[in-house]
Amino acid sequence: MPELRQTTSLNFYRSIDSMTAIAIRKKLIDYLEVADNKKLKAIYTLLEDDIEQEERLTIEEYNKELEEAEAEFQRGEYITNDAFKKKIRQWK
Fold it and tell me: What is the distance between the alpha carbons of residues 55 and 91, in angstroms, rounded to a whole number?
């Protein structure tokens, strides 16, 4: 039985890969129109940050943030992965 599930899953992903954005939107809209409240809430929770984000970054804003992050890195204003893991262990 797990083989069947895996095959079904692979077919699903192949199907998604071959679909256009328009086709995906249509399928989602059709589904959302009939989905029960529990599923709607789950989907909304999954996408809430994107939905609620009022202002998208322009490419200029994105590049500025990237430059600022690179400057912080050059100044040594970062924490290594190992140091962060040690810090996390202290939280427990």
Answer: 34
Tens digits of per-residue pLDDT, 21-62? Answer: 898 899 999 999 999 999 999 999 998 887 777 667 789 999
Q: Domain limits of the chain?
A: 2-91
* Cα–Cα dist 12/31, whole Å: 16
Contact 32, 40 (CB under 8 A): yes
DSSP letter for 80, please.
-
CB-based contact 44:51 (threshold 8 Å):
yes
Asked whether 39 and 32 are in contact (CB, 8 A), the reply is no
* Residue 42 to residue 45: CA distance in whole angstroms: 5
